[in-house]
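Researcher: Let's continue the batch. This sequence belongs to AbrB family transcriptional regulator, stage V sporulation protein T, and it's 179 residues. Same format as the previous ones, please.
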Amino acid sequence: MKATGIVRRIDDLGRVVIPKEIRRTMRIREGDPLEIYTEKDGEVIFKKYSPMGEWSESANQICETLYKTAGCCATVADRDTYISVCGVPKRELADKHISSDLEQLMEARRLYQRKSGEKGLPVIDSSDKYVIETAAPIISEGDVMGCVVFFSEGDKLLGEVEYKLAQTVAGFLGKQMES
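Model: Same format as before. Here are the structure tokens for AbrB family transcriptional regulator, stage V sporulation protein T:
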């Protein structure tokens, strides 16, 4: 565990403020759920909770099926990271932060499809090796939970079938999370 040198007091209602710098670095937004863990030696650990994390095994199977069906790299992301990837080595994207462009698409609840002649949005901010071809946000009970993404190295323009496939899978995952 990394010490930050920041000390906060608990108020009379039992609350503690997580400093803005830490929230920004860890991408913790207002209203985000946090899991609380305790250790025997008195440590209290806050961890971002991802409902999509519970679906990682299903997300792996879905990505594999999308890859085999569409012949294009596929990934499922929660609001911050890629939880499942198929079509490229997992170490390249799995558990990496999503790009700020994808984050904005999800927040706007927009479907996306790269158009001919368009450079494309990066999959991760630190590299432009992979670009998003199609993205469909996963919405459950009115909240954005993640995104289904088809991506490539910028050389594969996808059609209406892949667009509808991403949309269908995102809708399915959203409904599954409601039940």
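Researcher: Any comment?
Model: The radius of gyration is 18 Å.
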